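Final report, Chapter 2: Outcomes

The project's central promise was a pipeline that accepts a single protein chain and returns its three-dimensional structure in a standardized token representation, suitable for archiving and comparison. That pipeline is now operational. To close this chapter, we reproduce one record exactly as it appears in the project archive, with the input sequence first and the structure output second.
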Amino acid sequence: MTKAGSTAIQNYLEKCRNELRTHGVLFPETGFARGNPFDPERTSGHLELVRQIRRRGVQPLEDELKQANARVVVLSAENLLLDRPDDELRALAEYFHGWEVTVIVILRSQQEWLRSRYVESVLSGFKASIGTVQEFTAEAAEKGWLNYYAALERVCRLVSADEVRLINYEEAALKGRLVEEFLRVADLPLTDAALARTIRANVREKDVLLVEAKRRLNPLLRRWSRDARLAYEAEFREIAKEVEKRLPDPAQYVKQDWLPLSETDCLEISATNLELERVYGLVPPLRTPVSAAGYTYQHRDSRKGLDELVIAGWKLGAMLGQRADVHEEARGAEVSSALVSKGIDRVINLLVSAQVSLHIGSADTALIAASMSSKLLALVPLGSCCPGEALDVLRVRLPSEIICLKSSLSKGSVLSESGVLCGRRLEVVVARGTDAMELVSGVFMGGFTCTVILIGCELTCIPDFISRFSLEVASSEDDCIILIPGAGRDTKRVQ
């Protein structure tokens, strides 16, 4: 299974591939992949080979098997227990029909595995998940991820396993003998004892501060290409280290060792673990889970340093978003992101400083503002910001709530009906391609001064718009800031 030491085992087997062959053991090169150019130790093992077998593209493996003339073939793909579809597992059974199939599974206690899996799904550029820990655990329970016994029975049935052997991850890892324990259980030779005891993988920063900050950033980052997300992940981890060095009490940011589970979930886990012990002889048994009583962490966490890290993350996204490889690919994507717009860095600075903001047809900037604590903001779905996109933004759990206003508002009603302003400094964000000038004009009935900025090909202001409403181009210290994505026809560049 994932997050149970598989990468360390796979890296060991790859490094010892030639030595293993001399003992009649083949660890195939075919379909063994590494997909992260920023972390060469990470690997999905033979997952690609499993896919090739399903597609009947097995000739490279056939050639390797003939050349090796091995008595044992070792395939390692940790996703098989919980994540792979039935047809892939059946294809494995068909391909290895006539072989003696032994399934070896390293099991990690459900609660600790959930924590590690959640951290990976949020931090990793492969997934960039946006759900909270509560949402993740609820999803895991619904998908049956907590019932290891049922998952194991399914896999063994579909691959026609002749034998099943289990390893308790925590017990082996505690002794520092995970690789050695795997080799022992698998009846494989120990060809490099020193390497087996020292090899490690996927050891990364996993504290609460880093994970929650990245979760708030992911809604826009997940629209980037995979390689762009991986590049961002690598740089964001380094930024987090610098931010956390300045914190007064680093101890409060240590990793959360477990995720919240209901009493029902805990009872189900205890029952399935008893079955693993009774049917498969898993000794020692997996840890008993802890219920959610006393669990205090939630998405409104405002501990010191979190907003600072989120802001640093947005600025990093704005910087990387202007790079040619990210910018051009995102521009051509079906769904782009405000982070690739020129001038977005200035917009981020303005959103950081203002407590109140109104976003007209600009869901992305509303999300950026809501990712920080103590903000008051409203979103009017309009033009390029369709209702579906607005709903997607509203579903994300963020520290500041987004008030969603009807898009059929008439002139002046943004102020008179919503009560959003409350006499405080305001930002208004208007999306490109919208016929929103009459709507926005209601904002200026009180005679505010403002800064007008368009986010698009360049930072611009609209002379006609300014003259019509007697507005003055001013600094960010003014009462009102107007942010308008997309350049109009009659524009001039803001210096």
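Archive annotation: Residues 226-245 form the longest helix (20 residues).
This record, like all others produced under the grant, will remain available to the consortium after the project formally closes.
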